Amino acid sequence: MTKEFAALGHTVLGCGRTMAEIDQLRKQYPAPHDFYVVDVASDEEVKSWASLLLTRHGAPDLVLNNAAIINKNARLWEVSAAEFSRVVDVNLKGTGNVLRHLLPEMTAQRHGMIVNFSSGWGRSADAEVAPYVATKWAVEGLTLALAQELPSGMGAVSLNPGVINTEMLRSCFGASAESCPDPGEWARRAVPFILQLSPEQNGRQLEIP
Predict the structure, then answer these.
(1) Cβ burial, residue 208 (10 Å; 0-12/13-18/19+)
(2) At a CB cut-off of 8 Å and minimum separation 6, what does 191 contact?
(3) Residue 155 CB neighbour total at 10 angstroms
(4) I want to staple 74 with a disulfide (CB 3.0 to 4.6 A). Which of 78, 116, 124, 161 is the partner?
């Protein structure tokens, strides 16, 4: 997505957990783009990052909450408490942490769109991924509630990105994931779709066509 947004002239401000990948993004997309190592599951890390982002760049026009992890395939009672908590901390609390520290400035300006990434498993269910399913259903509910709280001029939507050949998908489906679109192919369709979102779609549950 960074490549597609940058190519269209947008400034991308992002974060991730892995230093090597953030360093690569910094080299590939220098200023005005800006990337930092942040674990969104940590409210304190998100708070520091958001403060820096807002000071340097102002309130964002578009927030994409797309950080997520998935549990190793296992029946619910076989998932450890630690693994269950980590999935909840990243997928659900991480979404809340980002919104907690960006929305005050955005709502003060009554401007901006929130896109909370959900999943096909945020509107359905399957065996051996119960923690992940639970968090994505929760993201859907969180977004519907948030949509009722935002001022006029803003909007929040949940977005099912569809099936993409990522490391996460391969962890669930193995080699069969190779038949799905790769992230680059997906981004070329997804970014124009995301950019056309508007406050009139506030509260919608959408998916990439």
Answers:
(1) middle
(2) 1, 4, 5, 8
(3) 20
(4) 78
For residue 201, the 8-state DSSP code is: G
How long, in residues, is the chain?
Answer: 209
Residues annotated as catalytic (active site), given as ranges = 132
User: Residue 36's beta-bridge partner residues?
Assistant: 15
> Looking up tokens 């919608």, which residue turns up?
204
- pTM assigned to the model: 0.91
User: pLDDT of the chain along its 209 residues, tens only?
Assistant: 999 999 999 999 999 999 999 999 999 999 999 999 999 999 999 999 999 999 999 999 999 999 999 999 999 999 999 999 999 999 999 999 999 999 999 999 999 999 999 999 999 999 999 999 999 999 999 999 999 999 999 999 999 998 776 566 556 566 665 666 788 899 999 999 999 999 999 999 999 99
